[in-house]
């Protein structure tokens, strides 16, 4: 078993008057892709935002690399955690290059970007190089998603949180994303990935946690869930086999 990089124990989160997370227990092994699945409204996005400090937890503990944290979002990012929200969060009026520069804490100018890492990103997402000086807001949905993920990877990160990267994308673009994320897996990048595309979940996931009503109700190997249609129906109300 890989060592645990991220651990949530009994985490509760309130947003205004609403109690969203009801004691989340979750472990994310280092160097693996952990899928976070569940029906709409189960609490998956709130879990990612709580880990990132965007919504503070009201109870429980979050440990990263063995240390408890309850810092601000910038301090959490400094520890090497990056977040790709469902909305992607890119700056539409800025070029692809400027979007990546803003995410690079150690670079003040484009010339300061790590050339080797930039070439690695171009290998993952060739469209970045093609549209390097193009306004990010004019890119296709799939290209914007690539920019969003590349921003999170422009500097080495210990943990990548990604929320529904395939949402609204054409199947061919989804396949490109799968291939890029597989390359990240080869480099032992630790990823916690929320995804509704179950073919993508099966292709990428090492471990899986299923949420329901603000709690994690199942954890195990992704392959075991992918092979057990009865378990899929019970936990998710559908069959992965119908989403190939």
From TrEMBL:
One biological process GO term for this chain? L-amino acid transport
Q: Which InterPro entries match?
A: AAA+_ATPase (IPR003593), ABC_transporter-like_ATP-bd (IPR003439), ABC_transporter-like_CS (IPR017871), BCAA_Transport_ATP-bd_LivF (IPR052156), P-loop_NTPase (IPR027417)
Residue span, ABC transporter domain:
6-238
Q: Which controlled-vocabulary keywords does the entry list?
A: Amino-acid transport, ATP-binding, Cell membrane, Membrane, Nucleotide-binding, Transport
State a single Gene Ontology molecular function: ATP binding
> What SMART domains does the record point to?
AAA
**What protein family does this chain belong to?**
Belongs to the ABC transporter superfamily.
Name of protein: ABC transporter ATP-binding protein
